Amino acid sequence: MHVLYDTSKVHPLDRYDYYRAGAGIELAPVAVHGHAPGRLLAAMSIARIGDFEIEALSWSEDSEIRARRTERLIRVCDPGCYRMFLSVGGDVRMEQAGNQVDFRARDLALYDLSRPWRATHATGSMRVVMLTFPRASVPIASDTLRPLMGALMPRRLPGRDLVAQFLIGLTDTTELATDPGLADVLYECTVGLIRQRLGQPNGITPRTRRLLYVARIRDVIRRHLGDPRLDLDRIAAAAHISPRYLNQIFQDAELTPMRLVKRLRLEECYRSLQDSTLAMKPIKDIIAAHGYVRSDQFARDFKQQFGASATQVRRLTSQRLLT
Questions:
Q1: How much is the average pLDDT of 192-198?
Q2: For residues 5 and 21, what is the distance between their CA atoms, to the nearest angstrom?
Q3: How confident is the model over 264-275, as a mean pLDDT?
Q4: What is the mean pLDDT of the chain?
Q5: Are 105 and 88 in contact (CB under 8 A)?
Q6: CB neighbour class for 75 (10 Å; exposed up to 12, middle 13-18, buried from 19)
Q7: Where are the beta strands (DSSP E) in the chain?
């Protein structure tokens, strides 16, 4: 993810003004009001995935601050998007269209960035995840969606917790854009959840659940690639599902879970070999860091996957950097 702003990088006396400037260059700019806190740590990271933008915001301060999306700001910059707002932890109040939400951990609500809203950040720390997507991508009339704006998605709503867990996991992943099909998963889960909330058919379908679980398991595997003992049991335990269910999820997938482990390890090794900051790191250390135990097995797998040896990939990368 790309860091949009991070107040920890500037002098404490400059952090409030720095944050206000950062809030003004967000996808949907907001105006910040309130006295400058004595302590303020605010950081936003963003990533683009197809038509979706995912934003992670962390926050800590010692006095209340208010942020407003005003009619004037909407006239200046209107991305024409909806936003799912997910509280990971901490206290924040959001208001739009007469609806007010005092967020608790794992609360999820939908907002229209083309309409005014305001937020009140209480003292203390918080962390939120926001998923922003074009209104035109949602095949549901805006009048039908209007009652949902600024209102919570009920916790009992089927599939809601699975979507929330998926979004939180995305913000801890560094290689979002390289994950094929991720935009399709985001579309399925957002539109499906909205349909589910409206009581419409084709909400969180078995297909959507499988897509969410596959994406979640890919994330679990990426986090544990360096463990040479990674197997079905460890993957299932980390994903909080049974090994049997893990196999069911991948029953119709292109790859089995262990073949996926192998492909991701090779892709990470390839990426590391092209990283100029790792140019002096021995190849054996790179492959060991990604879970390979046997160098001969790695050599065969790598050549089969990429049509070149690890040494050749590193040499070609070095030559390109010199030209």
A1: 94
A2: 9
A3: 93
A4: 90
A5: yes
A6: exposed
A7: 2-6, 31-33, 40-49, 52-61, 65-69, 81-89, 92-96, 99-103, 108-112, 117-121, 124-134
Residue 81's pLDDT is 96
Rounded to an integer, the average pLDDT of 158-187 is 77
**Residue 299 placed within a domain:** no
Q: Measured between alpha carbons, how far is 155 from 158 in angstroms, rounded to an integer?
A: 8
Residue 321 to residues 268, 276, 313, 317, Cα–Cα distance (Å): 20, 8, 13, 6
Does residue 80 lie within any of the structural domains?
yes
The CATH code of the domain that includes 35 is 2.60.120.10
| Half-sphere exposure of residue 3: CA atoms within 13 angstroms, side-chain side | 9
Tell me what pLDDT residue 34 has. 84
Answer for the pair 114, 83: CB distance below 8 angstroms, yes or no. Answer: no
pLDDT of residue 177: 46
Q: How many domains does the chain have?
A: 1
**Is residue 59 assigned to a domain?**
yes
- Residue 8 domain-assigned (yes or no): yes
Helices (H) and strands (E) in the chain, counts: 12, 11
CB 179 within 8 A of CB 218: yes
pTM for this one?
0.80
Answer with the residue of higher pLDDT: 210 or 32: 32
In this prediction, residue 94 has a pLDDT band, given cuts at 50, 70 and 90, of very high
Question: Is the Cβ–Cβ distance between 97 and 115 less than 8 Å?
Answer: yes
What pLDDT was estimated at residue 322?
67
For residue 35, the Cα-to-chain-centroid distance in whole angstroms is: 31
Q: What's the token pair of residue 185? A: 């998963």
Domain that holds residue 128: 1-159
Identify any residues that bridge with 76 across adjacent strands, giving them in sequence order: none
